[in-house]
């Protein structure tokens, strides 16, 4: 037989013997501990039942003397506590000994509670005869429970004494077995160790040293020398494993570095795209001559007023103010009140166009109208409702805009219409604006800003997503809900207040 076969055979036999002895001792200890725990648990349950039933009886008597609400509430609490202890009794005592006395004890607890409730009920209903019968049953039941509790405790004490005597005998046997086993194993180990070769022990010790170094993350240690015997196979495998693990760790570090670089590049690309879009909007704005356009509209407004057309003059003024508002830089925040004023002008123009076909209700109930919000947030939503929801409606179209304060300090805005609605697939796309293809993004006629654009600017403005919720179905209309968080702007960025 080879050396490593003998070595393994010896240690396997020794470990098996020690394991069997250890398992036997631990199993006996576990059983003893469980038995002690069971007895202790039963003692605790009986003590809790005795205490809670006594307190419940005292509270019941107090309530029978003076019917006060505080006493009745205490009675209900103590009743529930007793019922909870009864349930625990069912899980411990009844499993241990399912005898007649345990069943009677369990049901007598329910009977005690029932009679107390009946006594309270008959007292409130002024049924004196039935009331005193129930009180007598409460007294008898309570006395029976107290006596039976003592009897059950005495039984548990008898079981405890029997268990303790058995435990002492088992401990004596286990101590004898452990001592004899230790002496036998020690003598056998000395005998085998005497014949062990240094040629076997030296590579093993070196392997142990190298393993400890590797467990600390040191892969720079030298390879274990490989001998020509059985231990050499282990040394060769250990050296190969060390090199493979070290190579794997290096590959994971390199992969992590590349992933970080790729993520940074993606973030830079997204930021670049956003900046390009802002530059595109600025370019479109710069192509117009605001002064010429405003002067022209003012002239038209004065002329209309002079010719006796005040409505036309007011409409032209609204258009002029809308255009001036829309030419403001998109990156600058505005107050919610300014956004609502702009929306009011837009609604005035659209009501002139649609007359009685579409009605717009503005319901504003907020004390935080001065909070900063992105420019052109609400008007594009109402514009989408006109264009995509109600433009083909002949009559009865309604758009409702509600502004409300929330409990957390934020402000919510809801734009609802009773138009044709949006298919579920399209709602799912709009709920995830990053997945919407550019060709599929809806845009308004006036601002060129659609719902997806509004969501992205809110996300950039507040530094978070999930601020827009869309609820719509075909034929049921559409509701868009926006939450403006209670935050402050510092240095052009949004931070939590």
UniProtKB/TrEMBL annotation:
Residues 198-250 form the HAMP domain. It is a multi-pass membrane protein. One of its GO terms (molecular function) is ATP binding. Residues 288-488 form the Histidine kinase domain. CDD domains: HAMP. InterPro entries: Bact_2-comp_sensor_kinase, HAMP_dom, HATPase_C_sf, HATPase_dom, His_kinase_dom, Sig_transdc_His_kin-like_C, Sig_transdc_His_kin_internal. It comes from the Bacteria. It holds the Pfam family HATPase_c. This is histidine kinase. The lineage of its organism: Bacteria, Bacillati, Bacillota, Bacilli, Bacillales.
């Amino acid at each position: 037989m080879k050396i490593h076969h003998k070595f393994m055979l010896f240690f396997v036999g020794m470990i098996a013997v020690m394991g069997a002895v250890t398992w036997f001792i631990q199993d006996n200890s576990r059983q003893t501990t469980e038995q002690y725990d069971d007895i202790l648990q039963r003692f605790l349950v009986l003590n809790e039942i005795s205490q809670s039933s006594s307190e419940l009886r005292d509270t019941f008597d107090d309530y029978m003397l003076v019917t006060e609400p505080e006493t009745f509430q205490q009675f209900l609490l103590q009743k529930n506590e007793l019922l909870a202890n009864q349930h625990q009794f069912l899980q411990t005592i009844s499993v241990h000994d399912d005898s007649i006395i345990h069943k009677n004890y369990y049901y007598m607890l329910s009977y005690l509670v029932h009679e107390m409730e009946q006594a309270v009920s008959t007292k409130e209903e002024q049924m004196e005869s039935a009331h005193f019968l129930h009180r007598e049953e409460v007294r008898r039941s309570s006395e029976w429970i107290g006596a039976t509790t003592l009897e059950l405790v005495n039984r548990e004490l008898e079981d405890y004494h029997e268990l303790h005597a058995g435990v002492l005998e088992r401990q004596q046997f286990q101590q004898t077995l452990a001592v004899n086993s230790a002496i036998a194993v020690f003598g056998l180990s000395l005998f085998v160790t005497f014949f062990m070769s240094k040629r076997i022990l030296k590579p093993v010790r070196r392997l142990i040293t190298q393993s400890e170094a590797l467990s600390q993350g040191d892969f720079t240690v030298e390879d274990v020398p490989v001998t020509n015997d059985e231990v050499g196979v282990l040394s060769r495998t250990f050296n190969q494993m060390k090199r493979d693990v070290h190579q794997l760790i290096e590959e994971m570090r390199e992969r992590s570095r590349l992933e970080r670089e790729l993520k940074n590049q993606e973030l830079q690309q997204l930021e670049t795209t956003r900046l390009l879009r802002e530059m595109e909007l600025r370019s479109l704005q710069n192509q117009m001559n605001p002064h010429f356009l405003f002067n022209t509209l003012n002239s038209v407004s004065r002329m209309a007023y002079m010719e006796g057309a005040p409505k036309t003059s007011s409409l032209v003024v609204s258009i002029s103010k809308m255009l001036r508002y829309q030419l403001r830089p998109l990156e600058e925040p505005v107050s919610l009140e300014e956004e609502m004023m702009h929306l009011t002008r837009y609604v005035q123009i659209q009501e002139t166009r649609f007359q009685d076909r579409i009605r717009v209700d503005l319901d504003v109930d907020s004390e935080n109208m001065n909070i900063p919000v992105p420019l052109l947030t609400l008007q594009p939503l109402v514009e989408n409702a006109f264009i995509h929801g109600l433009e083909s409606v002949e009559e009865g179209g309604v758009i409702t805009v509600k502004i409300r304060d929330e409990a957390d300090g934020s402000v919510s805005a809801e734009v609802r219409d009773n138009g044709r609605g949006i298919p579920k697939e399209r709602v799912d796309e709009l709920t995830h604006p990053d997945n919407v293809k550019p060709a599929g993004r809806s845009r308004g006629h006036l601002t060129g800003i659609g719902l997806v654009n509004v969501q992205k600017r809110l996300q950039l403005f507040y530094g978070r997503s999930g601020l827009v919720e869309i609820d719509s179905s075909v034929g049921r209309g559409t509701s868009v809900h926006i939450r403006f968080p209670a935050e402050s702007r510092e240095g052009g960025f949004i931070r939590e207040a």
